[in-house]
Write a structure and sequence with these properties.
Elements (H helix, E strand, L loop, with lengths): L6 H13 L5 H12 L5 H13 L3 E8 L7 E7 L1 H18 L11
Helix pairs in contact: 1-2, 1-3
Length: 109
């Protein structure tokens, strides 16, 4: 059975998709924090990106070095076609599992 994205991996994939060409570590972390209200350590983001890249779900490229980063270059990420398929499959599975559970419907306790 193939690996499937876990909750955090899925959040990373979605953040990279949202950010499009501006997807590198700090904005990815900020996007998740702003969207979910959860604080995310940058090291955790980079570890997840490495894992997703090794699975072929994201690819990366190194940008130009910048003075504000002390001459270091940013590493930009993009979700691959395989990663998009994994995110779509995860959504379908979660929506199917979610359906019909009375406790999870709006207005019920």
């Amino acid at each position: 059975m193939a690996d499937r994205p876990g909750h955090f991996d899925l959040m990373i994939l979605l953040a990279v998709l949202r950010l499009d060409d501006n997807a590198y570590g700090v904005p990815i972390s900020t996007e998740i924090e702003n969207t979910t209200g959860r604080s995310i350590a940058l090291a955790t983001v980079y570890a997840a990106l490495e894992r997703l890249e090794s699975r072929g779900w994201v690819s990366s490229r190194v940008g130009e070095s910048t003075a504000e980063r002390g001459g270091r270059a940013k590493r930009y990420f993009r979700v691959t076609a395989k990663g998009v398929r994994e995110a779509r499959d995860a959504k379908r599975a979660l929506v199917k599992m979610w359906g019909g559970i009375r406790q999870l419907q709006e207005g019920t306790t």
